[in-house]
Design a protein that fits this description.
Strand order of the largest sheet: 2-1-3-4-5
Shape: elongated
Order of helices and strands: EHEHEHEHEHEEEEHEHHEE
Distance between the termini: 45 Å
Number of domains: 2
Helix content: 40-55%
CATH class of the largest domain: Alpha Beta
Mean pLDDT: 89
Radius of gyration: 18 Å
CATH architecture of the largest domain: 3-Layer(aba) Sandwich
Strand content: 15-25%
CATH superfamily of the largest domain: Response regulator
Low-confidence stretches: none
Largest sheet: 5 strands, parallel
């Protein structure tokens, strides 16, 4: 695996590169958003670790531009810990969000989890499945399109996978660890905030939080709303 670090702080970038090298992961770094975009477009990486505070482009814009032309996994690492920052990054296509400061073992766990999830998605046989009609919402697993009252809703790949999973059995409460295992393909429980941010992003795009109900201390329940 080749990991590209887009980070303008040389000390932080070097620490991540050295830490990944200790785990037998090839990594290199660039210090600007434009250099990072060019490296991804040139096919120079299999996964991106992206800082948001870059000198030329905001990291969210870098994420948007990369996602516009590539499905490469993106893990955002940033000192911005507010929920709105996580939601914006995830809505733009990031696969995970890690708040600075963080430990190298945590970053490695996130990298491995994202890699397992994307590998499982690409290796899965495309089993044909009829579109799901859930109230005013239609989810088509074959085309990976979602429409609400006839209007298309644009979801990131992870948001689509999460919505597809939650909607498989409407009314059933799904536990957080089970969602992480089945959608992120990991038994590691540290991505709970990422799960919450993805749920928040889906609710915002559907225009009504009632579609996905939080069950305190357990997880989430999908509840169809409206009529077709």
């Amino acid at each position: 695996m080749r990991v590209l670090i887009i980070e303008d702080d040389p000390a932080v970038a070097a620490g991540i590169v050295d830490g990944l090298a200790g785990a037998a992961i090839e990594a290199h770094s660039v210090g600007t958003g434009r250099a990072g975009i060019d490296a991804v477009l040139a096919g120079g990486a299999d996964l991106v670790v992206l800082d948001l505070g870059l000198p030329d482009l905001d990291g969210t814009e870098v994420c948007r531009q990369i996602r516009g032309s590539s499905d490469i996994p993106i893990i955002v690492v940033s000192a911005r810990g507010d929920e709105v920052d996580r939601v914006v990054a995830l809505e733009l296509g990031a696969d995970d969000y890690l708040t600075k400061p963080f430990g190298m073992r945590e970053l490695l766990a996130r990298i491995r989890a994202v890699t397992r999830r994307t590998a499982a998605a690409s290796d899965a046989a495309p089993a044909p499945e009829a579109p799901r009609e859930l109230g005013a919402l239609v989810i088509d697993p074959r085309t990976r399109r979602v429409t609400l009252s006839g209007a298309e809703i644009h979801l990131t790949p992870t948001e689509f996978d999460l919505l597809l999973h939650l909607s498989a059995d409407p009314g059933t409460v799904l536990r957080r660890p089970d969602i992480l295992r089945d959608v992120w393909h990991t038994e590691w429980y540290g991505a709970t905030k990422t799960l919450d941010a993805h749920v928040a992003a889906i609710r915002r795009k559907l225009g009504d939080p009632a579609w996905i109900e939080s069950v305190r201390g357990i997880g989430f329940r999908f509840e169809p709303q409206g009529t077709p």
